[in-house]
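Fig. S4 source data, part A: sequence.
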Amino acid sequence: MTLLFLCNNEDNMENMTFSQISKFLLKCKKELDKWFEIDLPMPELMVLQSAEDAAAIWDIEPGESPPIGWADIERHKLYILSPAEALKFNIKTYNLRSLIKHEYTHLYWRAIVGSSRPIWMDEGLACYLAKKPFKLRSKNLILKIQDYFDRKTFDTYAVGYFSVKYLLERFGRKKFLAFLKKLSKLPSKITRKIDKKEFEQLFQKHFHLSLSRRAIKQILKDIP
C-alpha cells in the first residue's frame, strides 16, 4: 500500500493523522474482503489538497466543482479531495471515512462485475457499505430505475441506495453477491458494458422480481 498526499499538510485530514488513515484503509480492506469474499491488494490513496489538481486530472475548467472522490480502476488508485478544499465548493456532506470506503467499494465491484453498469447498483452498493444514505426526493423515482442504468445524476445515488438496501434486507448478502458473480458474465469483451435488457432478464430470473413500473409500484406499496 502507498499513501501519497498531494498537499502541504498531512496532519489535519478531518482530524485524522496519516497513521489513522492508514489504519482505516486496512480496516476497510478487511471488511470489504470479507463482504465480497475476495482478497484485493491495497490501493494507492491520493488525497488532493488542490481542486486544480482534480481539475487537471479530469480536464475540467477552473472554477467548476471538481469530483470529491473517485476510484481509478485501471491503476488501482483512490483519489480524494481534501475536506478543506471540498468546503470551498459548498460540499457540506463531506465525510472522509465514508468517502474513502465508498470509492474503495468501487474497486471490489469492478473486480467482480467487470463493468460499472448498472450505475445505480454500483453507486447504491458503495453508498450502502460506506453507510452514506441518500434520501429520495420521491419514491416515484424508483419507477424509472433503469433510467439510471448508464446515467449518473444526484438522484442516481438515492435511487441506488434505496434499491440496494431493499435487496440486501430482503434477500441477504449471499444472494446479492451471487447475483454480482452472475452479472460478471454479461459485460462485452470489447466495451465492458452490460446490455440493459440482458441485465433485466438476469435480475428477474435471480430475484424473481420485475423491473417494470407496474411491478415496482406494487413493491413500493409495502415499503413505508
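Fig. S4 source data, part B ends here. The CA atoms of residues 32 and 193 lie 24 Å apart.
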